[in-house]
Design a protein that fits this description.
single chain; 185 residues; 4-stranded antiparallel β-sheet; alpha+beta; 3-stranded mixed β-sheet
Amino acid sequence: MKRKMARIIIVIAALAVITGLFGPAVAGRIRGQDVVTSSQLVKAVDISRLSTAEFAYNGIAEKYKEDNPEEVECYISYNASVKVGVQMEEIGFDIDKESKTVMPLLPEIDVNIADLDEGSISYIPEDPDIPLKEIIRCCEDDAIREARESDALYRTAEDNLRSVIEALLKPVLAGTGYEIVWETE
């Protein structure tokens, strides 16, 4: 519960910082215009890559033998964190001028490379004769595969992405009469 509350506080703090840093500058980019265009909104969310959720994982990867890919050579215990997010320049906007609405069109959320805690690695059986580079790749692949299978991680990432977009666009849209609407699923 404390961990979940800490994450919520971090997201709120991040939104406050993003809004404080980018909101006034972004609003200044299109201030004084009654018409909102997609290109203006793309400039407003121009942050590059945005990680919107993080997956902490304590996993056990299986390293298979090269000469027999059906047989496990060793098990590797590890800790890793995997971030998911989007390329912000891939966000589009559907603008309805009659109803004065802006619908953000979100790109597919993808998994970044895992950040493996190499100090947490342990083996069963101990001291296998496997290069560290292979072990790291095996653990990273396992963590990314687990993250990709987590529906909750993707839902959290999308919720956080929507919150960031709203925080960036609300100052821009404030004086225009436009409002943000989201596609219903």
